[in-house]
C-alpha cells in the first residue's frame, strides 16, 4: 500500500515517483493499492489505469486549498480513521508513504499499530509547504516551518526505513529532523521513454519543465533569457502550470520577450517528449529540488543543463561536462552559461549531450524498484551510487529492530 498527499493527475516529483513505482510494482506481480486525495472532491475507491497499467486507487475526500489553483488535501480530521479502515480492510504486507503531511500520518500510525512493515520516503521540504501560506506574517511562517519539521520527525520516526531521493536531501532531512540512517535512493527514470536527437539543431530553444510556483524561481530564468544576445534568436519553452503563471506572464511583458516565450501549460507526455527532443538546453533555477525528475527527463533526452547551484541539482549537473551551475540570484552568470551552451562548437555541444545521458543512466528505474523491493522484504541494502561523488553508507539495523538498514 502506497500513500501520498499528491498523485496523478497532479504533476510533481512526488506524484510522478509514486505513479511510476506503483506501475512497476504491479508489472512485477505485486498487488498495489494507492491512497491519495481525490482530484475532484468526493472520496471513492476503484481500479484506475496509469501508464497502461491498472491498480487499485483509494481516493480520499478532499478540499481545495483556496489560495492555490489546483492543490487539494485530504481532510486531516478524518485521516487517522481512514488509515485504520484501509489497513484493517486490505491488510497490506508493507506500507510506503511519500510525505508526512496528512495521508502519511494516517497510514503510518495505522501500520505501526498493526505491526506492518513501514517505509517512509520524503519528497518535501517544510520551506516549500510554507510558501503555500504566504498570507501569514514572517514570524508565523517561521513557526510553521519549524512545526512542520517537527511533525516530519514524529511521523518518519515510526518508519522501519526512511529514504530520500539524494544524499544531499538525506543530509538536509537528517539535520532538520534529528533522524539518522536515512537512505539515498533515486526516484529513478526509464530513459527508454525519451528520444534524444543528435541531428544539427535548427533553433536555440531553452526549455523549463515544472510547477509554475514561486519556489521554482522561474523569474530568474526570464531575466536571464532577456539578457541573451538577440543574434542567438533564442526561444523559451516553459512547460507546466501553477499559481505563479500570471506574475510570470507580466514579467515577460515587462522584459519585452513575450514574442520569444511560450507558456505551454500542462501538456500530454508525447508533446513534452517532443519539446525535450528538439530543445537545445534545459534550465532549472529552483533552489528546492530534492532530486528534479524534470532535469533527469531532459538529460535522458540528451540535453545539456544549466541549473542553480542548490540542493540536489549539483548531483545531476557537472560543470563543464554536461552543463553549468550558477549561484542563485546571479542572473548575468545564468545568462552567460546559457550562452556558453548555445554557442558551443558542435563537438563540445555533442559531448555535453552524451554526458547528460551517461550521468542520468545511473538513475535506472529498475534499480530503484529493486532496492525498494528489498527494503519491503526487510533486507539490508546498499544505496545505489547515483551521486557525483560516491558516498559509502554504513548499514545499520533499521528502526524498530528490523533487519533493513
Automatic annotation (TrEMBL):
GO terms for molecular function: glycosyltransferase activity. Residues 11-192 form the Glycosyltransferase subfamily 4-like N-terminal domain. Keywords: Glycosyltransferase, Transferase. Residues 199-356 form the Glycosyl transferase family domain. It holds the Pfam family Glyco_transf_4. It comes from the Bacteria. This is D-inositol 3-phosphate glycosyltransferase. GO terms for biological process: carbohydrate derivative biosynthetic process. PANTHER family: SULFOQUINOVOSYL TRANSFERASE SQD2. SUPFAM superfamilies: UDP-Glycosyltransferase/glycogen phosphorylase (SSF53756).
Amino acid at each position: 500500500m502506497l500513500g501520498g498527499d499528491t498523485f496523478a493527475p497532479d504533476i510533481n516529483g512526488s506524484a510522478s515517483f509514486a505513479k511510476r513505482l506503483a506501475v512497476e510494482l504491479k508489472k512485477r506481480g505485486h498487488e498495489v493499492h494507492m491512497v491519495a486525495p481525490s482530484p475532484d472532491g468526493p472520496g471513492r475507491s476503484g481500479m484506475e489505469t496509469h501508464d497502461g497499467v491498472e491498480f487499485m486507487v483509494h481516493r480520499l475526500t478532499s478540499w481545495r486549498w483556496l489560495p492555490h489553483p489546483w492543490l487539494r488535501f485530504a481532510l486531516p480530521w478524518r485521516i487517522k480513521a481512514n488509515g485504520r479502515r484501509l489497513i484493517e480492510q486490505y491488510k497490506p504486507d508493507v506500507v510506503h508513504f511519500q510525505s508526512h503531511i496528512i495521508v502519511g500520518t494516517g497510514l503510518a500510525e495505522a501500520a505501526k499499530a498493526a505491526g506492518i512493515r513501514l517505509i517512509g520516503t520524503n519528497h518535501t521540504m517544510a520551506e516549500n509547504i510554507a510558501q503555500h501560506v504566504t498570507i501569514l506574517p514572517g514570524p508565523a511562517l517561521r513557526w510553521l516551518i519549524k512545526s512542520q519539521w517537527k511533525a516530519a520527525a514524529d511521523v518518519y520516526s515510526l518508519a522501519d526505513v526512511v529514504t530520500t531521493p539524494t544524499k544531499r536531501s538525506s543530509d538536509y532531512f537528517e539535520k532538520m529532523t534529528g533522524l539518522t540512517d536515512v537512505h539515498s535512493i533515486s526516484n529513478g527514470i526509464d530513459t527508454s521513454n525519451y528520444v534524444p536527437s543528435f541531428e544539427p539543431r535548427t533553433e536555440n530553444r531553452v526549455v523549463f519543465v515544472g510547477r509554475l510556483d514561486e519556489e521554482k524561481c522561474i523569474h530568474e530564468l526570464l531575466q536571464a533569457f532577456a539578457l541573451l544576445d538577440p543574434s542567438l534568436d533564442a526561444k523559451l519553452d516553459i512547460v507546466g502550470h501553477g499559481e505563479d503563471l500570471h506574475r510570470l506572464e507580466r514579467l515577460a511583458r515587462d522584459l519585452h520577450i513575450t514574442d520569444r516565450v511560450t507558456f505551454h501549460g500542462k501538456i500530454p507526455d508525447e508533446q513534452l517528449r517532443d519539446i525535450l527532443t528538439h530543445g537545445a538546453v534545459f534550465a532549472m533555477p529552483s533552489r528546492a529540488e530534492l532530486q528534479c525528475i524534470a532535469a533527469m527527463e531532459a538529460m535522458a533526452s540528451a540535453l545539456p543543463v544549466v541549473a542553480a547551484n542548490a540542493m540536489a541539482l549539483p548531483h545531476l549537473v557537472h560543470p563543464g561536462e554536461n552543463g553549468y551551475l550558477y549561484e542563485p540570484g546571479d542572473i548575468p552568470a545564468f545568462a552567460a552559461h546559457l550562452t556558453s551552451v548555445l554557442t558551443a562548437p558542435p563537438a563540445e555541444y555533442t559531448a555535453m549531450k552524451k554526458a547528460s545521458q551517461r550521468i542520468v543512466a545511473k538513475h535506472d528505474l529498475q534499480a530503484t524498484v529493486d532496492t525498494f523491493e528489498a527494503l519491503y522484504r526487510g533486507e539490508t541494502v546498499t544505496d545505489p551510487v547515483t551521486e557525483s561523488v560516491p558516498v559509502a553508507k554504513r548499514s545499520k539495523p533499521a528502526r524498530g529492530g528490523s533487519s533493513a538498514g
